[in-house]
Amino acid sequence: MSIRFVVLGGGPAGHQAATLAARLGAEVTVVERDIVGGAAHLWDCIPSKTMIATGAAISFARRIEGMGLSQVTDPSVHVDALAARVDPHKVFLHIPRWRPFKYDQDYPTFVPSDEGRAFVEKARAMGFHPAPHANACQMNPDHPFFFQARDFCTRAPNDLRWGGWSWLPVGGWGSFGPPQSYSQMPANKDWNILVNVHLAWSPWRRQLTRQVADLIRDLGLDSIFVDVSQLIHNSDNAILESLTYADGSLKLIRELAELAPGFCVSGEGRNEISTQYLSVVQFHLYNFAHTTAINGKDVGWVVEATTPVNELLFGGLSRGIGYNYGRGENRRVMVDATLKQGTIPTLIFQTQDPVAELQGDEARYILSHVE
Length: 371
Hints:
The chain has 371 residues and is of the alpha/beta class. It has helices at residues 12-23, 39-42, 45-63, 76-83, 114-126, 146-149, 184-187, 202-219, 245-257, 289-294, 302-305, 309-314, 330-340, 354-358, 361-367; strands spanning 4-8, 27-31, 92-95, 129-135, 138-139, 164-167, 175-176, 194-196, 223-227, 264-268, 280-282, 319-321. Helix content is 36%, strand content 13%.
């Protein structure tokens, strides 16, 4: 005999209680005189705070010149310097910061800032292949679309916790899982909170493919980079729209690849699912040595430990690019291990002055491997 629950009120607490009870096998009836979800989440506190913050950012941007500040909008100095060293038609440019938002915030809004647009248009006119950074499966909980997507986010099968991660750009802090309450997630934007969306949910795929299609039309893009494309999540809501997460992942990458003839979809890491339609992929080194290198610890072992097994499995499906070389003396070792995997020689700039970096020993060493 099943347990029966009657939940009075379909606000945030009632909605969560009813969902959990139903997943545990109970028969649940929700009594709600208005809309399930609660006004605070749907149109009052949290959405209004999101709009207030957005309005404040726009207002600040409009006042910036009056504060004696300026924004650099001419990208020609950077791409001109690079074009002097290599043939632009042979260069793939992964651009992490091209939107009017901070990195890993305000997903899934993928629109260019004025500086980002100027850079991409200049690069395309010169023959480069710029690939703006997007995200395959993660969104920020302060984004308005989250209130439609929250019931279609991944949850761990054992404890139903939100899938995703958060990180603080502060020394001594690493990544950590997203908060498990609706009130904590949108209230801490500086934590860079990202929640995983189940890729079988078609409205999410439409969000991404529609915006990338707009970028192809408006900027003449021939490439896009979708972060976190390598993860295939085991979620409590395993089947959505008759698809598994793996099915949804494959469907998303294929839908992006078919937006335009010869369109290049690039991503993070190779696996047996998404790699089928990815053209360029970031390579991760053995035991994720990137974290060790970033923390300044010794990675002298990584070249010997690196064996191009991925190339044996997936060679011919996609080409590799470098990921993160860390800092200090680690960088040369990480470069060598990355090249050993058969990647395209990859420059990863560390400063706001890539022109000066192009004159440095590391850039010369990497460019010496260009065919």
